[in-house]
Structure formats: structure tokens, C-alpha cells
User: Fold this.
Amino acid sequence: MDANEILAAATDSMTVRRVYGEPIERDGVLVIPAAAVSGGGGGGGGAKADGEHGEGTGFGLSAKPVGAFVVKDGCVRWRPALDVNRTVLVGAGLVLSGVLAGVVISITAIRGSR
Assistant:
């Protein structure tokens, strides 16, 4: 693949079709899934001292679900996706903060009682 082919593939990958999934309709409810999509790419080339030429290109794409639009009875509502990893990380951070605060309070109390 040359750089132009990779650029064309990257452009096709980063379209609105990647952000909004195919609508799903059941029992009068329409659900339109949505995702956060990001990507990047690069390329380069050069020549060695012996005149040999090399080139390379690359592209990466990342997508994660963020939620869905739910259409019911003419009303549109946004329903966010639950990011379990983020929830666990925030919970662990809160627990760690509580433990550290307890240690600081204990040390302060011990020093104050001397």
C-alpha cells in the first residue's frame, strides 16, 4: 500500500458511520448507538548512504461506545454508556484518598498528643 491508499482508507474509516451506528427499532423505540472515534497517522521516507530508499506509513483508529440516542413517542433522550474501567478507577482513587487522609489525620493526632 502506498501513502495515497492508506490516506484514502483512513478517510473512509473516520466518517460519521463510525460515530453513529445503524439505528435499531423495536416495539416503537428507535435506538441510535454513538461512539467516540479518534485516529491518527503518519509516514515518511528517506535514503541510506548507499542510495537505497525506504518509506513507510501507518494509521491507527480507536473507538469506544459513549451511549445512545433513544427515540420514543417523539421524545429523544441521551443514554450514556457505562465505562466500567473509569468507574473502577475513580472508585479506587476515592478509596486511596480516604486511606491517605486517614493516615495524615492519625499522624497529626499522634504528634499533637506529645
